[in-house]
Amino acid sequence: MTGRQYYGQPTEMTDKKADILAVAKAARVSPSTVSRSFNHPDLVKPSTRKRIDRAVRRLGYIRNRAAQTIHGIRSGTIGLIVPTIDQAIFAELIQSFSNSVEETGFTILLASHGYSLDREYALTRKMLEHRVDGIALIGLDHATDTYELLAQQNTPALLLWNYAENAPLPCVGSDNYRAGHLIGAHVAALGHRRIAAVFPPLHGNDRAAQRLEGLTDSVLANGGDPDILQRETPYSVADAKQAVADLMASARRPTAIVCGNDVLAWGALHALARLGISVPDQVTVTGIGDFHGSQDFEPALTTVRIPARAIGARAAETITAMITTGSPAENLALPPELIIRATSAKASA
């Protein structure tokens, strides 16, 4: 027997693992061309890459990244550490970043820290132990130890999602203060004065804190009630439903509910529907993020679009350039955009 079959397809079996010389011979190219196809695919003709890929698949060749790292060759991996992968908040960002990184011949090593900056530091250490070529972190608020570690290791590092002109590392993101300010101005312009803010916990979450600050400043500047009702709730539709039910049962019932992200706004809409409260006739509801599905709600959600896909793609371009050229990166701001849909209307009382 010369081979086994898996799922009906023959696979070559050998006594030893295929090496780069075997791949080069099977693809009828030089070993250096095989290496170049992995490390710099843009320098190899598409037809040649296809031949090499067919040979790699047929032989089951796997590169020895550890050996490459020992000899000073890049690992081809970029670490991406996010606060959570449990919700849709960073899904588009992660997908876009991963797709764009892959186009340049890199892959991502993904981890989440659960909004713990201490855990983020530990994960950063682990990724550096795996010899990643660069690290991308979400937001601007990180432990001093994390910033010092990246500086000590001289590892290319990039901050995603938030933008600030004076960011401690190069950043590609949107202005979350501006996002909060946009939605606050919109709600205040509709005549709402009794406004509630349903936001995630602010500790360790500079995105939410900046949005709330922008919202508060904007409402005050537009003549709104300075005493905004605030409720903190986890990133959960169920928890948001309960928080909004409590708000609507209070003596000082709001006419507008501004949510720190679309997930919480979805929970608010469910809660109000269950209570028989009409949106937007009786209560305006807004979110921030413009997640996939927000446009399809009934009624469609008014929100602020954070350009997650564009941030992911531009961040990938930036960090791969930092790695391959060693050149410094400039901060890049991608502005948020107010998206007015059917859940906001003029205050009725």
What does it look like?
By secondary structure, the protein is α/β, with parallel strands linked by helices. The chain folds into 3 domains: 61 residues, 434 Repressor (Amino-terminal Domain) (Orthogonal Bundle); 125 residues, Response regulator (Rossmann fold, 3-Layer(aba) Sandwich), CATH 3.40.50; 131 residues, Response regulator (Rossmann fold). It contains 12 helices and 14 strands. It has a 6-stranded parallel sheet with strand order 4-3-5-6-7-13, with helices on both faces. Strands 9-8-10-11 form a 4-stranded parallel sheet, sandwiched between helices. Strands 1-2 form a two-stranded antiparallel sheet.
> How many domain units?
3
Work out the radius of gyration: 25 Å
* CATH architecture name of the largest domain: 3-Layer(aba) Sandwich
Helix content: 40-55%
Strand order of the largest sheet: 4-3-5-6-7-13
Helix and strand succession? Answer: EEHHHHEHEHEHEEHEHEHEHEEHEE
Mean pLDDT score: 89
- Runs in which pLDDT lies below 50 for 5 or more consecutive residues are 1-15
Helix/strand/pairing category: alpha/beta
